[in-house]
Fold each of these.
Amino acid sequence: MRVIARDGSAETEIARSRFRCTVARVADVGAAQDVIDRVRRAGPDATHHCTALRIGDPGTGDLTARSSDDGEPSGTAGVPMLEVLTRRGLTDVVAVVSRWFGGTKLGAGGLVRAYSGALTAALDAVGELRRVRHRELLLAVGHDRAGRLEHDLRHSPYRLCDVTHGTDVTLTVAVAETDTGAFADWLAEHTGGDVEALDTGPRDLYLP
C-alpha cells in the first residue's frame, strides 16, 4: 500500500476560481471526518468543500472509499478526486478541495480537470511512501552476547528498532511479513539456534 509522505496543501487558480487542496494521512473514517470539519471551519467562505478518501486495512485487505461533490454537479468533483487516489494506489488518505467561485462557470469537463488537477498538485507536493506490514519481534539475550547480535542486526537486511537493557538485553526487530521465514533462518545461524523470537504483533513501517 502507498501513503502520502506528509500532510500538506496546494492551491491553483482557474478562470478566477481558487482551488485549494488539503491532503492528510488518516487511520480511519472518523479521523478523516475530523480533517474535513477542520478544513470547513478554516474556509467558511468557500463555495464548496469537495472530498475523497481511501482507507485500507493491510491485515484484511479491506478498503473504504468515499467521495462527495458538496453541491457541484454530480460526478464532477469527488469522483474524479477519488479516481486520482485510486490510480496512485494511495490509502489512509483524505483529500479536501475547497473552491472559491470566481464568477466563470467551467462546465462539467472543466470542473473534472480542476478538481483532479488540484489534488494531483497537492499529492506531488507532499510525496509518497510505501506502507509495509511487518511483524515486531523481541529477542532477549544476555549482556555478553547482546553487542555481537546488535552489530549483526545493524548489518543485516532487517530493521533493529530498539534496544532495552535490563536483566537481559531485549532487541526489537521489525521483519516484513514475507521475510519471517528467512529471518528465522538468519537468527538461528547467528545465535546457534538458542535464541527465540517473540512475535508481539503487526507493525507498519513507512518506507521510500
Amino acid sequence: MSDVTTAEFNEEGKYLRKVRSFVLREGRLTKGQAVAMEQQWPVMGLDYSPQPLDLAAIFGREADTVLEIGFGMGASLVEMAKAAPELNFIGIEVHKPGVGACLADAAEAGVTNLRVFHHDAVEVLENSILPGSLARVQLFFPDPWHKKRHHKRRIVQPEFVQTIRNSLKIGGVFHLATDWENYSEHMLEVMSAAPGYKNQSVTGDFVPRPEHRPLTKFEARGHRLGHGVWDLMFERCE
C-alpha cells in the first residue's frame, strides 16, 4: 500500500493548506531506481507547477487521460499504460523509490503514454490539472487509517471528492479500491452523498473489478486467504 498524499487533514477531515505543507518522502533508492530517475525523469517526469498542464503538448496528442493517485511502486500503473496505448496516463507518488521503480519499469516496457509527478496529490489536482480534463481518476488501496479515531485522516472525504469531480469531464469516472471493508463502507457513504456523482454499480454499492485494473500479487494472495477487495466507480454527471 502507498501513502497517496502527504497532505495533512485535521480531525474534521479538512485539508490543511499551509506554506510548504509537506515533505517529499525521499527514501533510499536502489542503484536501478537512481539510474531511472536520472535517465527517465527528463522523458516522463512532470515538475510541479501551479499552472495547469497542457496535456496535448505533454503527450503530443489529444487523448483521454487517466490519473492515478499514489501508485506505490508503479507496477500496475505501467501495466495499465502498456495495455491501453490509446490513453494517456499520469501517476502521482510522494515516495521517491516508488517513482524510480515506476520509471524503470516503464522504460523497460517501452511505455510512452505515461508521465509521473513526485509531489503532493491534492496540490497537483487543485493547481496543475485543468477542470474537466480527465477521463478517469484512480485511487487504489489508500492508507485505511483503520483505527476509529483516525478515520477523519482518510483521504476520501467530501472536500477531496469534489476536488476530484472538478478535474473530471462530464461522464468521467472516479475509481476507488480498498481491501479494508470498513474503509469501503466509508468510501461508499462519502461518494453516495457527494453532489454531482452517479454510482455505476447496478446494485447501488460496489462493482466487480474492471478489466482495466490489474490484479496485484498482494490482492491475489488476499483472495487465496479469503480476503475481500471492494471496487467503487462513480461517474461525474454534473
